[in-house]
Prior knowledge:
By secondary structure, chain A is an all-beta fold. Chain A is built from no helices and 12 strands. In chain A, strand 8 and strand 9 form a beta hairpin.
Amino acid sequence: AQKVTQAQTEISVVEKEDVTLDCVYETRDTTYYLFWYKQPPSGELVFLIRRNSFDEQNEISGRYSWNFQKSTSSFNFTITASQVVDSAVYFCALSETNSGYALNFGKGTSLLVTP
Amino acid sequence: DVKVTQSSRYLVKRTGEKVFLECVQDMDHENMFWYRQDPGLGLRLIYFSYDVKMKEKGDIPEGYSVSREKKERFSLILESASTNQTSMYLCASSFPGTSGRGGELFFGEGSRLTVL
């Protein structure tokens, strides 16, 4: 069963627009971890953020922000004032307590930012 | 900087051949992983290892095996390659969970395998 759902397959925005990438997860564990990874056109996946299930505080890092809501099992990612360099595939992932930190990835959202 | 190196960027093999994909990391990470990435399917976990000589099946282990004889090296083996194993294979390593950075994966550049 799919544990991480990224309903948006592709998103296209014009530079400077804000964009939100959705991520919905499912788990029965009370302790779990959520992640976002970026895969630019060059191909190598890069870690962006890790969140544990006990920390619902929103996180902001520059133009990036993450909204974690346990009530809706969502961990959404917003890019403010998008830039062409943000064009990439973004993956949301879940790690459950017994998984040895093996991540269960969503299918990814391809973001295209055009000038 | 953490470096995860996969031995081959591109491979072309014939159906039935035995294929070895090698991965080496230089950060003394306990955990290592093999994923495959296919369009529309995202990343799927094949096998992972949290210690030398230890291995755990992921979501799609059928048709694959792994070897971890040394901490820094994690090999993926296709005993008899088939066309449905044509894919991008990604190796990753990570710190142990006790470090507070569990799940922060460092990926290699990937090995694109084509099976004819």
